[in-house]
Amino acid sequence: MDKKYGVYICTGCGIGDTLDMEALAGVPDNEGVNCTTHPFLCSKEGVALIQKDIDDGKVNAMVIGACSRRVNFDVFNFPGCIIERANLREGVVWPHSRETYPALTEEQKDDGESFDRIQMKAQDYIKMGMIRLEKVKLPEPYQTQSFSKKVLVIGGGVTGMSAALDAAKAGYQVTIVEKTAALGGYAAKLRAQMPVQPPFETLQAPVVDALVQEVEGNTNIDVRTNCLVARIAGQPGEFTVTMKKPGEKIPFDVPFPLPPEELVDENGKELDAEAAHQKYLKYNEGREDILSLDPNGELYGAVVLAAGWRPDVLKGEAYAHLSVDNPDVVTNDEFELIAAKGKILRPSDGKEAKRVVFIQSAGKDEDDSDFEYAGSVTSMVALKQARYVREDYADGKAYVIYQHMRTPGLQEYFYKAMQQDDGIFMTKGAVTDVTAMSSELMVTAKNTLLGENLVLKADLVVVASGMVPVTKDDPVINLAYRQGPGFRDNDIFGQYADSNYICFPYETQRTGIYAAGTVRRAMTIEESMEDATGAALKAIQCIESANRGMSVHPRSGDLTYPDFFFQRCTQCKRCTVECPFGALDDDARGTPKANPTRCRRCGTCMGACPERIISFADYTIDSIGSQIKAITVPSQDDYSEPPLRFLALVCENDAYPAFDMVGMNRVDYSPDVRVIPVRCLGSVNTIWIKDALAQGLDGVILIGCKHGDDYQCHFVKGSELAEIRVKKIGDALASLALENERVAFAEVAIDDYDKLPQIINDFVEEVDALGPNPFKGF
């Protein structure tokens, strides 16, 4: 592409009132680049002005100095052109007031001693935008070698069938893989479902039979029962899938995760997720058959994982204080099977069970003592099963003892209906014991809402158990990926199959594989069916995006993908290991092998590479590094008291929007900070920090999403990796004789914008106390 440069600066929204436009336009003029100003650049006239220059062949690479790139992105969209948005409005003139930072007079401009901090920031942003145009290329979409629009659904329960029907009705071919002999899953064993229609008082007949008939009658759906997915290789749009019968051994079986005895250290302590993952990699090192394609495999475009759940049998540690060996103490799962056969009878002797106690807590006094995998579904199942008792016996009694009763949404009406039933008794409390008498059970509970202990006689005791996703013990999807057969952090330690529970439901850590139903969280049948629709739509979106060479969420529509300069690759494997989504495999030497449609374009591989050989067409080590070098660093030669200069590398997903909101609310922070948005903090290569300090910038702060148990990083681990890298940069700072405090890391949620000015100003003050960077002026 023969680049033709142009700069367009808007003077509206206070930009022209605050800045010296002649001086600002002089920045590109001094570089021989034409600069055009307009009072309302996003108007029809302003856009037409730019479009005319494009049509006349005058410009195809432009800096638009106006509002944030998060605003009017559809207005300033000129296909075939490289566009850089210099944020003069939210980033410069709105947060920084002339009352606080007065403009220079003509005399001050001439004396060479004064500096206009707002003007300098605006001019730096124009320079940074111009240099980026030189360093990037127009992206070209990746084209797959072969392509399929078929959707694979793993699991033939209500979730899987609903997802298959939704995709099929949208015109896509679907294959359902079900490991048992029939469709239906757990729902086929139910006696009834929760009410879904007003007044929400009557249980509903199971919908599973109708779903089975509809699936079997749909010509777009291929049903395979007694079948397992043995292996999935490849990438979205061209997944190569190998199937087999349960128990069958085939050459393309993916090695199962390490056996339990391998998941502990020498002291018997459970390995953390990263240590276990590294052990898995070492275990499979050099096994190229793990990654190779099955020549007889079937081609699919995307996968919906609807494998379901299994009951957590709590007749162990959580209920160790109860007499659980008695056959008349059953789990809620076992009780459902009893109720589905007809009238509720005791397992021990087949007699009528008219008095049933439902235990919802593990017997501890603490208010937060719910057991693992418990939730609102656990509460609603207890209410539903209590209704069974009342349906079967007019004189039946149901007792529900709980720590928490959760009935979200309209199910609150069902809860209230149960409260009005004289045969159903509910109280908060801790069950302390269940003992067997001659022909009945005795249940004792304390700390109840009545303020006194209870002793209840029961024919049957039902102990609540949680809904454990099947992916806890088995990856199910059996991926032929270098990072392992499952979801990395999930496949060994049992978390739900979800990638980002806040921002991107249905996604897993493996692009093109979307979780639905109870592998994501505990859900009712109704919720699972709705969930299936979302996952099916995500799968369709992924297929169509991959077909166009575009990435999917969160950088939806991005045409770039990682490009490697292999001549300098040292096979260190850092990119392969650190990729949050398993997009990179490698060969026997460890040379990375990209799978572009797996890639979500976060750039974590780029930040991980010590040789800096990974880049994207419009996002490279050089492009960001050159922007940093374009920042003006005033020295003693220019001013007797030069202003300090700071760099903020901020996540484009949370921190950069937070900066925009600071500007929109006209909240001031130090104008000596230059903000560069990055795709993810995981993409930040430490060379950028070293270069910034080496050229005289006084401090660098990285601001990203919150990480940890309640992580909000769009790319799962980017923020966490960045913080680790910042902590390790101390040696490099020591080699430059610089203080560690000159590099900082901060977390900001998108709604924490009000905290951002304080974070910035505290950092500036801390570095100011250290004094100027000794490299300033060199």
Automatic annotation (TrEMBL):
Entry cofactors: FAD
Superkingdom to which the source organism belongs: Bacteria
Coiled coil regions, renumbered to chain: none
Sorted UniProt keywords: 4Fe-4S, FAD, Flavoprotein, Iron, Iron-sulfur, Metal-binding, Oxidoreductase
Alphabetized InterPro entries for the sequence: 4Fe4S_Fe-S-bd (IPR017896), 4Fe4S_Fe_S_CS (IPR017900), FAD-dep_OxRdtase (IPR006076), FAD/NAD-bd_sf (IPR036188), HdrA-like (IPR039650), MvhD/FlpD (IPR003813)
Residue stretches making up the 4Fe-4S ferredoxin-type domain: 560-589, 590-619
Residues spanning the signal sequence: none
Keyword Ribosomal protein: no
Pfam families named among the record's database cross-references: DAO, Fer4_9, FlpD
Single GO MF descriptor: oxidoreductase activity
Keyword 4Fe-4S applies: yes
Family: Belongs to the HdrA family.
PANTHER family registered for this protein in UniProt: COB--COM HETERODISULFIDE REDUCTASE IRON-SULFUR SUBUNIT A, FERREDOXIN:COB-COM HETERODISULFIDE REDUCTASE SUBUNIT A
Protein name: Polyferredoxin, heterodixulfide reductase subunit A
Source organism of this protein record: Desulfobacter postgatei 2ac9
Taxon lineage: Bacteria, Pseudomonadati, Thermodesulfobacteriota, Desulfobacteria, Desulfobacterales
